[in-house]
Design goal:
The chain has 170 residues and is of the alpha/beta class. The protein has a single domain (2-151), classed as Rossmann fold, CATH 3.40.50.450. It is 36% helix and 15% strand. It is built from 5 helices and 5 strands; from the N terminus they run ββαβαβαβαα. It has helices spanning 29-39, 61-75, 90-100, 118-128, 138-151; strands at 2-5, 16-21, 45-48, 78-83, 106-111. A 5-stranded parallel sheet has the order 1-3-2-4-5, sandwiched between helices. Helix 1 packs across helix 5. The longest helix is centred in the middle third of the chain and has 15 residues, at 61-75.
């Protein structure tokens, strides 16, 4: 597995997996997801938007972060969405809606059972992408995402993908 943290470069052939979900006001679930992916032997390039150190005093840092995430999400093969219980995460909800509308994007979506907008995530995905089941735990979501990376054809990041559904994988 290759690991890339924002704002790192990730021009590498192979399958890419983006860890989409809350950062501000959320536990570092990305660290747990990366550890679990390593334990599963995932061979994808894992793109993590959560930086070890974010330069809060740099006014350009926010725009650079948003630009990196936007570009990475458009170029990745599998997007793992995780909604933790601690906060609503409106930007992540927007990103889920945007990428759910893209039929060429493999999405794996999980939500903590206590996430306050879980019913909305489930209801909206049932209409936009009925092939996607919202999973109940981070480990189940990570396993499903790892399984999706294993079945995708290898290509260069940014190359066109064929349409795939990401159904539940236990």
């Amino acid at each position: 597995m290759k690991y890339v943290e924002a704002p790192g470069e990730f021009d590498k052939p192979g399958t890419a997996l983006f860890l989409a979900g809350g950062i501000t006001g959320c536990p570092d679930w990305q660290r747990d997801a990366v550890r679990q992916l390593e334990e599963l032997g995932c061979e994808a390039t894992v793109l993590n938007p959560r930086r070890t150190s974010f330069p809060q005093d740099d006014p350009r840092a926010h725009d650079a972060q948003v630009s990196w995430e936007y570009a990475a999400l458009l170029r990745t093969d599998v997007i793992l969405f995780w909604f933790c219980a601690e906060t609503v995460q409106p930007v992540v909800l927007y990103e889920l809606g945007f990428h759910a509308a893209r039929s060429d994007t493999v999405l794996v979506v999980g939500s903590h059972p206590q996430y306050e907008r879980r019913r909305d995530v489930v209801a909206q995905l049932a209409r936009a992408r009925p092939d996607i089941t919202v999973l109940d735990s981070l480990p189940a979501t990570v396993r499903a995402a790892a399984a999706q990376t294993a079945v995708l054809p290898v290509h260069s990041l940014g190359a066109p993908r064929t349409s795939r559904s990401a159904g539940p994988v236990a």
